[in-house]
Amino acid sequence: MKRNVWPDKGAFKNHVLGWAIRLGVRVRSLTVRPMTRKWASCSTSGTLSFNSELLEIDRKVADYVIVHELLHFSVPNHGKLWKSLMRAYLGNYEKAEEWLRDHGARQAHAASPPSALSPRKTSR
Q: 3.10.180.10, 1.25.40.10, 3.30.1330.20, 3.30.2010.10: which CATH number matches 9-105?
C-alpha cells in the first residue's frame, strides 16, 4: 500500500499555502530544501523553509510541522495558547511530535507514521 505522501514539491507547497490561508498567515517566501538538523524554520519576515524529507513522510505528520511553523507567525513560543491552537487544528498533535522526535531527519522516510493521527475539521 502506498503511503499518503506528496507527489512533488509543488503539491507540498500548495498544501502549505492552503494551511496559511486557513490560519490567516501571509507567506512571503516558501522553500523546500534538504535540511540536516530541522524539519522546518520560519522568520518574522514571512519566510518559511521546510525539510524536503517531509515529502516522503505521511501527510498527517507533515501537517504537524506545517501548522507548527505557521502558528509561530502569531504565537512565537510553545506556551498554552500555541498548544491550544495546535490541538484545535490537529487534535492529538503530540503523537506526530513524538514520531518526529523519534525519527529525526534522514531516517524518517523509512519509518511508519503514527496510525492514530487524524486532523480535526474546524470552521476557521
A: 3.30.2010.10
